[in-house]
Amino acid sequence: MRKYSQLKAFLAISKASFRSILSTPSSIFFSFLFPVIFIFIFGSFGNGGGVHYNIAIDPASDTSNEVFQYIKNSNFFSISSFVKEDGSIDTAARRAALEKDKISAVVTIAKTADSSGAPDYTINFKTTNASGQAIPDLQQKFTSLLNEIKLRKAGSYNAQSVHADVYQVREYRQIDFVLPGMLGFSILFATLFGIAFPFFQFRQQLILKRFYATPVKRINILLGIGISRLAFQLINVVMLITLGYFFLHFTLIHGFATFIEMVLLTIYMLLLLMGVGLIFCSVVKSDTSIPLMINLFAFPQMLMSGTFFPIDVFPSWLQGICRYGLPLSQFNDAIRKISFNGLHLWNCGRELGILALWTIVIYTIAVKVFKWE
After folding, report:
1. What mean pLDDT is reported for the chain?
2. Fewer Cβ atoms within 10 Å of its own Cβ: the N or the C terminal residue of the chain?
3. Is 132 within a domain?
4. What is the band of 229 on the pLDDT scale with cuts at 50, 70, 90?
5. 250-260: b or e for each residue (b if 16 or more CB lie within 10 Å)?
């Protein structure tokens, strides 16, 4: 009698197990593609470590001296430019960046000379209370920089001084950035999962087919099922905004009117995402493929649409894709403009226009691919 081969049994089991993994798309995604996406996204961040500040140099500054060169070459600073196409300075954009702490200061470098001809440098920087703890840090860094130059230029250097001009603005808290992103994140995943899975199950169990056999119109069937789920997501959104406003000091600049506009914009985004969910539930062959489709659509947006961190952290070539190619970016930008900047829905034409184009494309596809059975 031939002896049973444990080795062959082991190899057979290993082969079958490996083939089952390859036959499951979600396993491939979470084991390989998902880590690659994270490596790509976070690998695109700026190099270097430690504390780092973005600043702007005032056009009135003297930039033909060693102080400017030290600032320019320092790993401690990044210089942001607000020059328009015509060569003028976009002071409105610079002030908005300063008030939102996207830049920490606007720096002016002045150079004079005493009777002996030795240079006398003065650094003035304008900042706001939004920069918080960065203000003393910047003052100390500029002072250290001038002292370093003085040591290097011993005998040909006179004096130095640093002055900070801090003006008060409406405080831009972290919650003013985080909460709109979390609203987008919440409705993105909750709506896609809440639409795709139920509609797929209704189709597989022939529930939609039975509905279709009734006198009820198709659109009423879809809206009746879809809106009930979207209403639940809207309740969650209202609760998040309320919690943020009363307990975390989230800014609703026009009070209840701002709240209503945020809710209206959220309904718009929910309807758009409902179309995406209908597409996913129609094109997949099994419910195990739905998470893969949702993750392929949602994760790039979660990471690159300003949900958890500003789009400015990415390279310039990627920022264009993030700002204009992702629907969640438009939602996040519009919500932040309405809640903190005091704009209204009719002032968010670019964001609403791009969302409208996405809606047309999505529902055109949904109409063509949706299946009742």
Report:
1. 77
2. N
3. yes
4. confident
5. bbbeeeeebbe
Contact 192, 280 (CB under 8 A): yes
Q: pLDDT digits over 319-365, tens only?
A: 888 888 889 999 999 998 898 777 889 988 989 999 999 999 999 99
Give the integer Cα–Cα distance in Å for 231 and 256.
Answer: 20
Cα 226 to Cα 233: distance, rounded to the nearest angstrom: 11
Can you name the residues that pair with 126 across neighbouring β-strands?
Answer: 106, 165
Do 180 and 239 fall into the same domain? yes
What does the block give as tokens for 249?
């000091």
Tokens of 78: 């990044």
Nearest to 344 by CA among 234, 260, 239, 238: 260
| Collapsed DSSP state (helix, strand, coil) of residue 287 | helix
Averaged pLDDT for residues 179-206 = 83
Q: Give me the phi and psi of 104, to 5 degrees please.
A: -90, -25
295: three-class secondary structure by DSSP = helix
For strand 119-128 and strand 159-167, is the pairing parallel, antiparallel, or unpaired?
A: parallel
Kindly tell me if the per-residue pLDDT of 236 is higher than 70: yes
Asked which of 167, 200, 220 is the last residue of a domain, the reply is 167
CA pair distance 234, 166, nearest whole angstrom: 41
167 has a pLDDT exceeding 90: no
297-326 pLDDT, tens digit each = 988 888 888 887 778 777 777 888 888 888
Q: Quote the CA–CA distance of 231 and 322 in Å, as a whole number.
A: 29
Rounded CA Rg of the chain: 28
Nearest to 302 by CA among 272, 278, 332, 273: 332
* DSSP one-letter code for 285: S
pLDDT tens digits along 7-58: 666 566 566 556 655 665 655 555 555 555 654 554 454 444 455 678 888 8
**Amino acid letter at 267?**
I
Contact (Cβ atoms closer than 8 angstroms) between residue 68 and residue 74 = no
Same domain assignment for residues 59 and 194: no
**Residue-range definition of the domain harbouring residue 264:** 174-369
Residue 42, φ and ψ in degrees, nearest 5: -75, -20
**Confidence check: pLDDT of 137 > 70:** yes
Residue 69 in tokens: 């060169």
Give the number of other CB atoms < 10 A from CB of residue 166.
14
Helix boundaries (H) for 100-164: 134-152
